[in-house]
Amino acid sequence: MMQLGRYQPPSRQTVIYGQPVAQALPQVLSEHWVTQAVLVTNTSLTQPGGFSEQIQQVLADRFRNIVKGIRENTPREDVVRIAAALRSKGMEAVVALGGGSVVEAAKAARICVTNNVRDAADLDRLLTATTAAPPRPYLISIPTTLSAAEYTPDACVTDERTGVKHVFHHPDLAPDVVILDPAMTLLTPQRLWLSTGVRAINHAVETWCAMQPTPYSDATSLYAARTLFRTLPQSKTAPDDLEIRLACQIGSWMSIQGVTIGVSQGASHGIGQALSSIMGMAPGITSCVMLPHVLRFNAPVNGERQKALSEAAGRAGRPLSDVVEEIVAELGLPSRLRDAGVAEEMLPTIAEAALKNPRIKANPRPVEGERDMLAILEAAW
Amino acid sequence: MMQLGRYQPPSRQTVIYGQPVAQALPQVLSEHWVTQAVLVTNTSLTQPGGFSEQIQQVLADRFRNIVKGIRENTPREDVVRIAAALRSKGMEAVVALGGGSVVEAAKAARICVTNNVRDAADLDRLLTATTAAPPRPYLISIPTTLSAAEYTPDACVTDERTGVKHVFHHPDLAPDVVILDPAMTLLTPQRLWLSTGVRAINHAVETWCAMQPTPYSDATSLYAARTLFRTLPQSKTAPDDLEIRLACQIGSWMSIQGVTIGVSQGASHGIGQALSSIMGMAPGITSCVMLPHVLRFNAPVNGERQKALSEAAGRAGRPLSDVVEEIVAELGLPSRLRDAGVAEEMLPTIAEAALKNPRIKANPRPVEGERDMLAILEAAW
What integer is the mean pLDDT of B245-254? Predict the structure, then answer.
């Protein structure tokens, strides 16, 4: 069948890698003529010895304010707190230091500023992104995990009233600049570092296996898989090796490129979101548990295509589901729902929620209602 | 050694592939609100039964003018002719149908329009690109070869006064939209089709082997090499197979992505430009002849890295220089300078010119003056 598609590049985003943040950040700020900036980060990085102090020093006389304690799953209240800080007269940039939750909050805060959203409830207005004014001010992201949230034009934010996560979208929502300095990841707990790495593997694998991949997504997801399958186990063995950590960061960057140009991911992401919403499970852990079983479910329709990734992992000839399972085990991460705190009687509730997720429709093998969904979940349990 | 770099995406460019031009072109013109367009093409495509008539029909009442007979190597006079046609009041787009020379001419004509360049000599002004106003109007490219000139922000134009080729550059010089319809390549002479394909292999190989590759260039050049090594020989055997032709076009697209983000190519491109300038050799043929010998020369410094491409060609374990030579032979293309019309006594002149080319400095193994250069050329002779 002839390939068919339209490639439209995502928003322009600069990525600086391998240069220490103490050099890269002042340079970026000068280039953008930034004289006033707000720092946004989570609680652990503001502990004594955490990196937020270091970034504050690098910001030097450009530093104006810090918004600390951004929580997991990005509650709306945190978004609104950042937006309030950005409203100060002449604030020209926000620097986000942290994992996915921090950058998601900073992304969302920028369209709150430009659309005059002042409280959590008012965020509802931005759910129809077509009416939203472009985000401001500049956003510079210094990631500390491998979640790849830095690269997408979406912000996933939790509505505290209902516990539901909503996705806010604007074509220019992704950070303007991403600085990949592996030294900034050294305080990240190993389980978080490695499991977000498996999340990135999940991005690459489900993009590669997508129903409508593109030349760009194929090139980048294969690169990402080849890199991450090799470097994540290395990073576990040698956690202080910055070169390996940077290679993981680059793998994560490439893993999501297909998504940034609109390639849809499948059931592992769809079920993962249900597990996060209902069980509060971290996205990386959902990938550890679900990806092998989704691959096994899909193998009858795309087993041939999966082979290239087993090869990329240096394990040609073995089913990709087994390869992923083995790597998750090598990383010391959970591979069963029961080990991740899910009681068996929750499975029907999870199945029901997952079936409503739009990514299930994008799965290569159709998930035929509750029966199929429960079978996948039971296998993973 | 730690990877280090800055990724800045090139100008936004839309690529539509696999959709017939009769569908894709009207859609693009509507999206850009184009009501008046100029068609630019070469002599062969305006012959009876050539595709220019078909494109004129697709343009329908948007068609205003045609500039025919764009010559090889893009002489300045042709650029100026296009610019004159684009100056008509309210002209909103130029459609370039043809190979590298046609699209180079259309690219250059657009900055002539916006910088009020009205004759060939006046083009000198644009050699300092920093002062040039952005190109207009929209440029839509329908390529008929695999040269990949559609994707770069440079236009290579011959100064008829001296025979020297100059490169005009503007960050937004690349066409706004590229339409890859393999049916539009069916009239391209096979030797031109296949040799521009080897040119694209040369882009991918020298980008992969560059001294400072990037994650993006690695991902895309590996994809391109893997695709083209396989599909070019298939396209020779089955010249009417549109699916294979499209795969070649996609390989060509990916082959040049590293260059569009600033990765430098090496000696095969550098020597190739000297051969084109002095001997009038087609760029694709220079790649057929020179690439294997440049790879052999470079093998002592990057032989390990070259191995991945032999593997991508499905010929793991064989030196890449031999692999390229074999594929060029399978394609029925010349592999020696003497078979491409170069007399042995010209080699010193070519060596002298090549040594001045900036790409020689970007070659992975330093080319130490005339002795090294002559050795490469003699091996290729």
Answer: 97
Residues of A in contact with B222 (CB under 8 A): 219, 222-223
Q: What local confidence, expressed as pLDDT, does residue A129 receive?
A: 57
Query: What is the predicted pLDDT for the residue at B223?
Result: 97
Contact status of B253 with chain A (Cβ, < 8 Å): yes
Q: Is the pLDDT of residue B8 over 80?
A: no
- Angle between helical axes of A283-312 and A190-208 (0-180°, round to 10): 50
| DSSP letter, residue B75 | B
Distance CA B213, CA B203 (A): 13
B368 burial (CB, 10 Å; 0-12 / 13-18 / 19+) is exposed
How many C-beta atoms lie closer than 10 Å to residue A234's C-beta? 15
**Closest alpha carbon within chain A to B251:** A215
- The dihedral built from the CA positions of residue A358, A364, A366 and A372, taken in this order, carries a sign that is negative
Q: What is the pLDDT of residue B6?
A: 75
Residue carrying structure tokens 């369209």: A111
Flag whether residue B131 sits within 8 Å of chain A, measured between CB atoms.
Answer: no
pTM above 0.90, yes or no: yes
pLDDT number for residue B130: 60
| Residue among A13, A17, A181, A252 with most chain B CBs within 10 A, to mutate | A17
- Contact at CB, A7 and B18, closer than 8 angstroms: no
Q: Does A254 touch chain B (CB under 8 A)?
A: yes
Q: Are B9 and A4 inside 8 Å of each other by CB?
A: no
pLDDT in tens, B207-229: 999 999 999 999 999 999 999 99
**Stretch B56-60: mean pLDDT:** 97
**Cβ atoms of residues B86 and B42 within 8 Å:** no
Query: How far apart are alpha carbons B340 and B325 in whole angstroms?
Result: 15
Q: Considering only alpha carbons, which residue of chain A is nearest residue B227?
A: A215
- Cα–Cα distances (Å) from A325 to A147, A192, A243, in that order, read 19, 18, 25
Q: What are the b/e assignments for B148-174, b being 16+ CB within 10 Å?
A: bbbbbbbbbbbbeeeeeebebbbebbb
Whether residue A1 lies within 8 A of chain B, CB to CB, comes out as yes
Residues in chain A with CB shorter than 8 Å from the CB of B1 are 243
Asked if the C-beta of A49 comes within 8 angstroms of chain B's C-beta atoms, the answer is no
Q: What is the mean pLDDT of chain B?
A: 94
Q: Which of A141, A185, A216 to mutate to test the interface with B (most CBs of B within 10 A)?
A: A216
Is residue B46 packed enough to be buried (19+ CB in 10 Å), middle (13-18) or exposed (0-12)? middle
Instruction: Tell me what ipTM this predicted complex has.
Output: 0.88
B174 in A contact zone (CB under 8 Å): no
Element spanning B117, H or E? none
Q: What is the pLDDT of residues A123-144, one digit of tens each?
A: 999 987 566 788 999 999 999 9
For residue B223, the chain A residue with the least C-alpha distance is: A219
d(CA B226, CA B239): 20
- B7–A9 C-beta distance less than 8 A: no
Min Cα distance A65 → chain B (Å) is: 28
Establish if B308 touches chain A: CB-CB under 8 angstroms.
no
